[in-house]
Structures are given as C-alpha cells and as structure tokens.
Write a structure and sequence with these properties.
Shape: elongated
Distance between the termini: 46 Å
Order of helices and strands: HEEEEEEEEEEEEHHHH
C-alpha cells in the first residue's frame, strides 16, 4: 500500500510549521495508532520468534511527530522492511495529521509452555517513540479498533482475537545521562492464538490411551501365563517413552514440566502398577499352584483394570482442569 502525494498533502506539509507553533502544549501530545495485520508466518517456538507483516498508522494533533519509532521486541533489524505511506504527513478534514507505514520483520516472543498442548499465547508487537518520553507524547489505540486481514490464518493454530492497548514502559537506567530515568508510552498490538483441541485429543492423548488399554490387557490374561502378562506392560512402557520423546523433540529445552509431561507420568505410573500386579500374582500362582484361588485372582485383576482406567481418566481431567 502506498499513498500518492496529493495537493492536500503538499499544502499540509507547508502548513505544518505554522500548525506546530499554534498547537497548545498542555501535557503530553496524544497520538492515535492502529494496526492492520496482513500475515503472520514462520512461528518458531524453539527460536521464540515469528515474522509479521502489517500496516501501522498514526493520527495526531501537534508538532511532535510520532513516526520515529522503535519496535521493542524486534529481531534481526537488518532484515526489516519499512516503507512510509507518504514522505510528509497529510492533513485530514478533521484537523488531524495522518501518516503510517508498512512493516515486515521478525519479532521475539517468550513462549510459556506450561499448558502444552493446550497452551495459549499472546503475540505482542511493542512500539515506542524514540524522541519523546511519555510526558511529551503518548500513544492511544485508534477508536476504529484492531484489524486482521480477511481470511487471516496461522497454520496449526486457532486465532482467538486481536486487541490494542497502551502501557507505560519505565526504564531502570538513565543510560549514562544525568537526571531521572524516563518513562515511555508503549503501544502494544496483541494477537491471541491457541492450539486446536483436536491436536491434544487425537495426536497426543489418543495414542497414549491406546497404549494404556493394551497394557491393561495383561490383567485379563491367566495369572499362570506370566511371560505373556509381563510382555504387554513392558511393551507399553517402551512405546510410551518413544511417544513422549516424539513431542518433546519439537519443544525447546525448558526447566519445567509441561502439561503433557504430567499426563505421561500418570500413564507411566499406571503401567508400572500393571507390571507389579502381574509379577506378584504370577509368583503367587507359581508358589501355591493348585491351592491358589485362580477365579478370585482373575476377578480382582478385572476390577483392578477398570479401576486403573478410571483413575487415569480422572487424573487427566484434573490435570487439564
């Protein structure tokens, strides 16, 4: 998008100095900002970054230009694409100056994965003015609201909504200059996304549930067949470990357990209980031989199987809740 230089824009540029002199200086200058998000791609959780392509515009009254900005959470500034709408601001019929830019670049986001794979994230773009602190210039969300392109999608994620807000960015250093550290107006555009529920149910939880059900099958085998009863939970335990590694390899190294790790630990504990039950009952039948009450053992095994399955389902619900 590029706005053409109109006669009104040329006249506005000539009148800007006169308008600046007549502007009142009663507190910080208010600047209304808006964002129209075109694309968001290359969302990389391991690198804590994403690429965004968007329009950014400003409307203001006063002599202080809001165009000299810094993207606080930007990465790879050498790769930024930045193009202003016009060289000079345009004067709108309502008396506001107007200008903007199209931006394409890479931004940083500290992904918190405690709730993986039911995690939600708020992808922020933080904007601050380089020239003026908050007591001279403050950004406010444009009343027309935040926008995203029609048909906008983030592959693999569900878009929950967009919002804009203004906050105070208080630096804890004066950067070697005399005086108190200044506070700056921080304009934030936020895109909220979450993982689809089907990703959790079908791709992560369902395979683990199948492995656990197969392991519980050991409790329906005759107690005297110890080798067959042991092979099922052992195979289930190994399969569960491989399944856990498959999703863990796609996540960055974090110093905490995510939700799916806790669910798998519950599954590991359940499989170990099945294995111990099979070993104990197998040894008991082998020692007592004819004196062992096989029907009673098998009834207890079946009840235990259903109880463990219900315990796993309850544990998953409690962990998710």
């Amino acid at each position: 998008m590029a706005l053409m230089r109109t006669p009104a824009a040329i006249i506005a540029a000539l009148l800007l100095p006169l308008f600046a002199l007549s502007a009142p200086d009663g507190g910080p200058q208010k600047v209304y900002a808006g964002v129209y998000l075109m694309n968001l791609y290359d969302l990389n959780i391991n690198d804590y970054s994403y690429h965004a392509d968007f329009y950014l515009w400003f409307k203001w009254k006063g002599e202080r230009s809001p165009m000299n900005i810094e993207f606080v959470n930007s990465l790879d500034k050498w790769g930024f694409s930045w193009e202003n709408f016009t060289e000079e601001p345009e004067l709108l019929p309502d008396g506001y100056w107007y200008n903007g830019m199209r931006i394409e670049g890479r931004f940083y986001h500290p992904f918190a994965l405690y709730d993986f794979p039911l995690d939600r994230h708020h992808l922020d773009i933080h904007i601050e003015n380089i020239d003026y602190p908050q007591d001279s210039l403050v950004y406010l969300p444009d009343s027309s609201g935040a926008f995203i392109r029609e048909g906008f999608q983030v592959p693999g994620w569900t878009v929950r909504g967009v919002s804009m807000e203004t906050r105070t960015s208080q630096y804890q250093s004066n950067f070697g200059l005399s005086g108190k550290a200044a506070a700056y107006s921080n304009f934030t555009f936020r895109l909220s996304i979450s993982r689809p529920l089907n990703y959790f149910l079908l791709k992560l939880l369902l395979p683990l549930l199948i492995v656990i059900v197969a392991s519980l099958g050991a409790l329906f085998i005759h107690p005297a067949q110890l080798d067959a009863r042991i092979s099922l939970p052992i195979g289930g335990l190994l399969t569960s470990v491989f399944l856990q590694q498959s999703y863990s390899s796609a996540l960055p190294d974090v110093g905490y357990m995510v939700l799916m790790d806790k669910i798998y630990l519950l599954g590991f504990a359940l499989i170990v209980c099945i294995m111990l039950r099979a070993i104990l009952m197998g040894n008991r039948v082998g020692q007592l031989k004819k004196k062992a009450d096989i029907p009673a053992i098998r009834r207890t095994d079946r009840r235990m199987a259903w109880a463990l399955l219900a315990l796993f389902a309850l544990g998953v619900v409690l962990l998710v809740a």
